[in-house]
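Per your request, structure below.
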C-alpha cells in the first residue's frame, strides 16, 4: 500500500501542485447530527472519511486540522520550499473569521488513506483539485461511506 499521497512531493517538501486527500475518521463522526444529515445513505459497516484538496502535503494539512482544532491559532508549515518556506507561519482565522481547520478532520481525523489518492495526484490547478474532490466525495458516498468535504 502506498504511503505517499503524491508521487511528485518530496519526503519533506510539497511539489508545488495541488492534491486531493482523504482522511479516515473515527466512527464517532457518524453520530454528529450535521454529519448524519449530510449522509443519509451511510452504511455503518464502512469507515467515514473527510475529503479535501490542498497545495500542502496532505500530511501537513492533516496536522493543521489537528492543531487548529486543539485551539492553537497558528501553524508553522514544514512542507513549503523557496518563497513558501519563508511565509509558512499563518494564522488559524482566515478572511471573515473562517477557521482554516475543519472540525470533522480536526476532532475525528485518524490517518490519511493514501491508497485512494496516490494515482490521482498531483493536479495542476486548484480548480481541477476541487472538482476531483467533489467527484471523489460522491463516489465514496455511493459506496456507503459517510463523507465530509472541505
Ligand atoms: Zn505533490
Ligand atoms: Zn505545509
Amino acid at each position: 500500500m502506498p504511503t505517499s499521497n503524491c508521487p511528485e512531493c518530496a519526503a519533506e517538501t510539497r511539489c508545488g501542485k495541488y492534491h486531493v486527500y482523504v482522511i479516515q475518521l473515527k466512527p464517532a463522526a457518524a453520530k454528529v447530527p450535521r454529519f448524519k444529515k449530510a449522509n443519509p445513505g451511510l452504511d455503518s459497516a464502512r469507515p467515514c472519511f473527510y475529503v479535501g484538496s490542498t497545495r500542502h502535503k496532505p500530511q501537513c494539512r492533516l496536522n493543521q486540522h489537528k492543531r487548529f482544532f486543539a485551539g492553537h491559532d497558528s501553524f508553522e508549515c514544514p512542507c513549503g520550499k523557496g518563497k513558501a518556506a519563508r511565509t509558512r507561519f499563518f494564522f488559524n482565522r482566515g478572511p471573515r473569521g473562517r477557521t482554516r481547520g475543519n472540525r470533522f478532520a480536526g476532532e475525528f481525523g485518524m490517518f490519511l488513506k493514501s491508497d485512494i489518492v496516490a494515482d490521482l495526484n498531483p493536479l495542476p490547478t486548484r480548480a481541477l483539485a476541487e472538482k476531483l474532490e467533489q467527484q471523489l466525495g460522491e463516489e465514496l458516498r455511493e459506496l456507503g461511506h459517510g463523507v465530509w468535504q472541505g
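The chain has one domain: 19-149.

Regards,
D.
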